[in-house]
Write a structure and sequence with these properties.
This protein has about 180 residues and is mainly α. About 70% of the residues lie in helices and about 0% in strands. The protein is built from 6 helices and no strands. The chain is elongated.
Amino acid sequence: MGLYSMLRVSLDALYRWAGYLGAVFLIMILGFVTLQMVSRWGGEIITGAPDFTGYCMAAASFLALPYALNSGSHIRVSLLLNALGRFRKYGEIWCWAVASYLTYLFARYAVKLTYESYRFNDISQGQDAWPIWIPQLSMVAGTILLAICAFDNLITILFTGKDNIRSAGIDTQAE
């Protein structure tokens, strides 16, 4: 197995496991909502449960981003790319270059925001009063993985002519 194949398998596994972790957070949302319903039927209120549900929703959303991108779940408007005809590859390269840069900025500022929350000991406004940097770590992980995924697609399309998106949707490329 060559270096490229090992790297490709490793990156795909990383994106897949981030998606699995996002699914775990979705299951945790179900657990928190169920716990809140059952506790209210018993006359008890679990303080902080709505806040933890929100943290799980953010974690599920951010961690699933790279998996969703490579599985073709993100919206891609390819009307202009299809109109480019034989120059479509150059349009794809431009799109992936812009996406790589923007996701890099997104990840950079997510890291900066989380670090500032840690540095200033920022506490959540809800009843849980948790340090806010803890749930922000999932945003950092998801945005860094999304930036890696976008750059991975840029490098792949530069060297192979195709990106890594496995789409079974209506908007597939005409070869």
